[in-house]
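Bug #77: duplicate submission created two jobs. Keeping one. Sequence:
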Amino acid sequence: MNQQMNQKTRTLLLLILIPVLLAVGILAAIWAASTFWSPRLPWQHPEFPPFEIPGDIEFYYIAKTVVSTINITLLVFLLIIYADIYRKTRSEFTAGLIIFSVILLLYALSSNPIVIRAFGFRLFGLGPFALLPDLFTFAALFVLLYLSIRY
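Kept job's structure:
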């Protein structure tokens, strides 16, 4: 009976997770695509034009925003799962997983262009290499989430 309940809970979690990830990704893409990445900041002199990012790099920042925001969402789900497991077992390993997830959450927040932009910094730089760490993090988080739901 308990195993069947766990299976129903896992299925429900996956049914909730997939639409949430899609919605978060779409909203992040809309925000990133509609944002003028380099408006004049209040302390900039009005005679100098603001720095603009070339069009080919904009794709990488839009993709980075989407992937980073999805990573944040996955980490929130992982923290909820690990906190529930820790509440039931009081396992040191689970406490370590919670700490690992919090650190990854801090990384995802600090690398998210939405957060960078919110603090008034301009986004420019590395082209596709700005996106690669987030793609690898996404793959690792997805594996962790799958294993957490599976076991």
